[in-house]
Amino acid sequence: MSSVLKMMPNERRKTGLCRSGLTLREHRNQVLARTAETGAYNGLTKLAIKEGDPIFFEKLASRIRAVLVDARETAKKIAASPIVEQEGELCFTLYNPAGDAILTSTGIMIHVGTMGAAIKYMIENDWERNPTIQPGDMFTNNDCAIGNVHPCDVATIVPIFWQGDLVGWVGGVTHVIDLGAVSPGSMSNGQFSRFGDGLQITCRKTGVNDEPLRDWLHESQRNVRATNYWILDERTRIAGCHMVRDRIEEVIGEVGIEVFDGFGYEVIEDGRVALHKRVKSMLIPGKYRQVSFIDVPYKHEAMATPAQYAKIDSIMHSPSTIEIKKDGGWRLDFEGASRWGWHTYNSSQVAFTSGIWVFMTQHLVPNERVNDGAYYGTEFHLPYGTWMNPDDRRTGHAYAWHFLVGSWTSLWRGIGRCYFGRGYLEEVNAGNSSTANWLQGGGINQDGDFHAVNSFEPAASGTGARAWADGLDHAAAIWNPEGDMGDMEIWELAEPMVYLGRAIKANSGGAGKYRGGCGFETLRMIWKAKDWAMTFMGDGYVVCNWGMMGGYPSSAGYRFCAHNTGLKERIENGESLPLGHDWDPDHPEWEKSLWSGAEVIRDKQTMATEQAFEDYDLYLNLIRGGPGFGDPIERSCRQIEADLNGHYVLPRFAQSTYGAVVSQDAKGLWKVDDAATAKRREEMKKERIARSVPVRDWIHQERQRVVLKDAAVHVRHMYASSFSGSKKFLEEFRKFWDLPKSWILRLGEEGIEGFGQMSIPLDSLPDVRRVVLVDESVERPEDY
Amino acid sequence: MNNLAHLVEVMGIDAGGTMTDTFFVRADGEFVVGKAQSNPNDEASAVMESSGDALHLWGRKLEEVYPELVTAVYSGTAMLNRVVQRKGMKVGLIVNRGMEDFHRMGRGIQCYLGYSLEDRLHLNTHRYDEPLVPAERTVGVTERVDCHGDIVIPLREKEAVEATTRLLDQGAQAIAIVFLHAHKNGKHERRVAEIAREILARRGSNIPVFTSVDYYPTRKESHRSNTTILEAYAAEPSRKTLLGISDRMRGVGAKYDLRVMASHGGTISWKAKELARTLVSGPIGGVIGSKFLGEALGYDNIACSDIGGTSFDMALITKGEFAIQKDPNMARLLVSLPLVAMDSVGAGAGSFVRVDPYSQSIKLGPDSAGYRVGCCWEEGGIDTVTVSDCHVVLGYLNPDNFLGGALKLNVERARQAIKTQVADPLGLTVEKAAGGVIEILDQSLRGHLRSMINAKGYNPLDFVCFSYGGAGPVHTYGYTEGLGFKDVIIPAWAAGFSAFGCATAEFEYRYDKSVDIAVPPSASDGTKTASCVTLQQAWDELAEKVIEEFRINGFKPEDVILKPGFSMQYLGQLNDLEIDSPLGTVSSVEDWNRIVEAFDETYARVYARAARSPELGFGITGAIMRGIVATKKPKVPMEPEEGPTPPRDSELGSRPFYQRGVWKIAKLYSMEALRAGNEIAGPAVIESPATTLVVPEGWSTRLDSHRLFHLREV
Fold first, then answer.
1. B188 SS3 class
2. Chain B environment of A86 (Cβ under 8 Å)
3. Can you tell me the distance from the alpha carbon of A65 to that of A271, in angstroms, rounded to the nearest whole number?
4. What total number of domains does chain A contain?
5. A 51-80 residues with CB < 8 A to B
6. In this structure, is residue A369 part of a structural domain?
7. Do A489 and B575 touch (CB under 8 A)?
8. What is the pLDDT of residue B4?
9. Which of A338, A426, A505, B602 could form a disulfide with A317 if both were Cys (CB 3.0 to 4.6 A apart)?
10. ipTM of the prediction
11. Which residue among A224, A243, A272 closes a domain?
12. B570 in contact with A at a CB cutoff of 8 Å?
């Protein structure tokens, strides 16, 4: 008791919660100042604990890490949502008092940063004074304006105290199945701003003395559709956070608070240094430029967006430069990215920077020591006002992943070129698939309950081809390498629709010497549902993942659903039924097994808002594939045979894309004729040369079109959007195409929608301090 | 040692990948262990050879002892190897039309099952294994049943005829039938089986037909189908192997029915209908042995720990029972077999030790040198430091008595390897580096052990820790230090403990069935009574299956002791908890409340009081029935106590021994020569051919009259 008193002199309590007596904000400012001054996190140019006893350091790290992993494994069994329980969409992270991540469990690792951002927001906005931070408190956050990815990722944050001082935080996040947005499902579709995205909670104190507050429970539970999932998800998070907190208290009791406290900063600097060493030994200094695009197709009638100005077609633009420095540092620069928009695919800066580690841990740093050291070891330039760092507080984020996934797939190519150059062929991957379709909806389910659904089958999309082997079929998602499509019987429990098929999707993986992994398709028939409505979400017109070194992109998605199918009668009469594969969408077969008067939708408009479905209606959930690597005409004949016989490639594409000369025997087995194929491929090479033009000539032809602004409206909108936020990008564009200084495309000019060019930043609100974690400098063109 | 006054009654066999161990126990509790090289092509010979090796120690012959044996239990990895190497039967698979790809697609999780945490993140390392049944032998038949068991699309029988014919034409050696939700309504599966059997009869074929509803009627089609396929793919061929062993035993006079260790922790007859559950049985033997010893010696709560060359396996026995995991994985396949719940960590004596060049941190495993030991055994061809190398350098292991002296270890070679690969990069001395490796491993194992106990809602203070496995006793002090166990026990036969455990297993069948009982918070008494009726019906059905299995082995229904259980959840959850029913039969509202209470209490302990959600109502997802018949068990050895001082002939001299930064002199003892009652204070090393017990300074151990060492901090 005496030592406690000694640690807590009364006058010190009047200032701050930190051990030093400083307020959390003063403390964080000092950490940042020491970091800026020395280049080392918190000024730790020397790691006293690690260097003094590397073995002890190691032991402590592995012990804390085990605490986090165990909490995740145990807590997830409490949940009811298959997204959490079956797909593992949850994670727990430990933070130091400054809100920087010490260590994390596996799971949706993007939240290492997003929960840290929430803690930093509380610190910067003086939560310490009001609503106060006490032992036993719980805070809930899912606010995208301060760093969350999308509102369905709900975080519970619990402070850790030791003898009256705040010594850390633990955060737990789950991806909830519904949060009362415009349409049912976790990632609502059709709204165009924050105000339709669903319930958003800003670091609210939702519990005291380890118990949730009743006003919070009542309010939150009636503001979501799938309340039972909501309740158990929250209990999952709370139980996990409390497990971590209690075990960390044990650790502190054993190693002492001095050591624990010191470790919480050293381990971050250690992570920063390790990243630089890794970059230095795996990559090659220089600048790597790449770009990707993805569609925003809101004009179509299937998108019932309730605002004229948002009903436009556009394209997300994500040019990027990876600069590898000689000292192992690096900078990721997204100058020229599109502006934020009236859709739900905007991303906060933290979602972007933190999410990148989900991608980097899949190859560059696949280790269990991921923490904010990686963030401090990386420079990010995300210009303020772009879709990845909006300067407006109205932006929608419900499906931020549409852009994140589309943007990052190009980074695989950039970094893959480094690996390839260094000879690390085994690390090369041509890119991630666009992880869709998102089957979502709601209504009255098979048990007569009010319900929302959100299938996570895209967690097992096809992966990109490697430089030495095909991508994996139906295996993973960029946001979770531990992907899984789950059992059909479990999804049927959660969703009132029976499977009529689950099949590998031929041609969904990009062609190549090594092909991209194929996705799959599941055909669902609505069953025992009432007042049921569903949405579609995914890429359709634009493919984001292009393939590498001559590999082809994967196929973009399409939409299939059918109403008035007549299937009830066809089932009774024993007639043919649509089952399994939608073999070749260009030559559809399923329609032959539907009533002639059926209403069939089959198009490339893969974003669609709520549509009513009745029993015996059909819905296709098409899961995308990954891009290819290397020229398809270098693929071995035996692999093409295996593709044909395993239904990974359609015969007509084996011929046209791969140049294979194929035949089928009496039993239906495909054979590829080696000699004839070799001959055909020689011809193809000649054909390629024959239709090629010198780059110089091509640029010349294209320039004419650029000068005349001869491009589709969504292409013009995309460039106008990029130019509006970047003088540098505009000037580079003009220089490349040799355009006059007066040439420009503007938002709002003839034919290009320009509604909403003014921004209303978050910190225009009273008493709000924004937390800035990246270089967000912007230089707009002069007259913008 | 030859004491004909005591008959040899019990035999346990642990046929591993490299060695086949046999364990014979006499009526007075004395035992011998035999070893022989495993022979995948002729398992029976390896068993005989190993038996000879063991019985030789008593100076007795196979022909004398086998007729005396009352019971024998086999446990082996042959079936597992058949699966891993994909050398099973050509199975034909009938599934829902439209779902022909689902088996070969597998589940995403199967492409990283068994991986370390780091590789689970490292996407390019993931890979799918070849499916058990290829696409060309998978045929679809139109039908659909929904999750309530209602028929959506009636079975199209004509397609079943075509499917069977096609599979037979393709040379299928067995047919497995799996339809979605067959566990809720098996009518269609059974009808297809009937059709298939008619066609088989017409074609004069007698290949087996398996339906998932009759084998593994539990929810989750990937688990249920893998298991049903395994029954056809691997279990039937293994039955032939077991028949071969049984025949050889009968050839030397055996009169018992050979039993096989099964995943649920009991033993079943080699004639059992569901033999796939004998797929994994290796590491669970130790858990069964611990439970048995616990019962004999009065320990209710036991933490079981087993370290071999490649892994550290842990299990908990609470209130005399071990837990069961229902949807585990084996050989990188999801299965629906009840498996003794164990946590495994990929760290053992053979684990490789490396320094990460980027973070300068020590990494252990996940790969290991296995039987090739480490750099200290040059002939093994290993150049990367292993944990064993550290042990040799620090004086924990005797370089001249490894595996009873069968391998001579080179201390200097190990030293050099540690210096260049670990010590120099970290700027440490060889001793400090090697000692650090051991400390990191011990602390990681200790962390896992503590987590396992905490995660189940318990505290180590309430547990006795059993430590066994060839490499276990070297680490026992390290991974139990500071946890506060009531007692830490190392059996003198630690290296043969799995084989011993098999010999102690119950003759026990266990059957599971998915049920869907939902009792919302507002439910009437009528609903609760009806739920009891549904549960009781499921129990009755399972009890019939259990009794039928025993009937095959000549037991009468009245010989069988039935133990019902159930899996319960708060309504809507996906996971459930398995509870031993506090009641033998259920029928009333009071009964319902009683079983709910049992669940609620367990839930609060396992998760957290705050995680309880009774306001959601309760659901029962599974009915469980276990049946046991009495069998002969080995006796625990009993020797008279002979005082604390070890006999002179147990002393083997001394050796330098590194502990916590200081070289000390450890006294050496022969484990076999120590007598009951002897006490040894550390630093000391107690050696036996197959295992080494390390007693550091500050610790002491006492050998009790059951030949169990008790290790404690002093």
1. helix
2. 574
3. 14
4. 3
5. 54-55, 57-59, 61-63, 66-67, 69-70, 73-75, 77-80
6. no
7. no
8. 57
9. A338
10. 0.93
11. A272
12. yes
A567 plus A668 within the same structural domain: no
Nearest to A369 by CA among A268, A228, A233, A511: A268
Which residues 136-155 of B are in CB contact (within 8 Å) with A? 136, 140, 142, 144, 146-148, 152-154
Mean pLDDT on A367-386: 91
- Which residue range forms the structural domain that includes residue A256? 2-272
- The predicted pLDDT at position A618 comes to 98
Range 284-343 of A in CB contact (< 8 A) with B: none
Other residues' Cβ atoms within 10 Å of the Cβ of residue B596: 18
> Do residue A654 and residue A509 come from a single domain?
no
CB A670 within 8 A of CB A648: no
Does B216 fall in a domain?
yes
Q: Which residues of B touch A429 (CB under 8 A)?
A: 123-124
pLDDT for res A370: 80
Q: A61: alpha, beta or left, given left = phi > 0 and alpha = psi -120 to 50? A: alpha
Whole-structure pTM value: 0.90
Say if residue A671's pLDDT is above 60. yes
Q: Dump pLDDT digits (tens) for A397-416.
A: 999 999 999 999 999 999 99
Host domain of residue B617: 508-629
* DSSP E strand stretches across B571-707: 577-580, 618-629, 651-659, 662-670, 679-681, 684-687, 692-695, 699-703
Co-location of B662 and B583 in the same domain: no
Look over chain B and give the mean of its residue pLDDT values, rounded to a whole number: 90
Pair (B183, B103) in one structural domain: yes
> Which residues in chain B are contacts of A488 at CB distance < 8 A?
99, 102, 180, 221
Q: What's the structural domain count of chain B?
A: 4
- Residue that is last in its domain, among A675, A691, A707: A691
DSSP letter assigned to residue A151? T
SS3 of residue B580 by DSSP: strand
Looking at the structure, do residues B524 and B592 belong to the same domain, yes or no? yes
* CB-based contact B443 A367, cutoff 8 Å: no
The pLDDT tens digits of the residues spanning A712-743 come to 999 999 999 999 999 999 999 999 999 999 99
Question: Are B254 and B152 members of one domain?
Answer: no
Q: Cα distance from A400 to chain B (closest Cα, Å)?
A: 22
Q: Mention every residue, 6+ apart, whose C-beta is less than 8 A from residue B544.
A: none
Task: Measure B631 CA to nearest chain A CA, in Å.
Answer: 37
A575 has a chain B CB within 8 A of its CB: no
Judge whether A22 and A235 are in contact, CB under 8 Å.
no
- Among B128, B222, B606, the residue with its CB nearest the CB of A472 is B128
Q: Are residues B250 and B204 part of one domain?
A: no
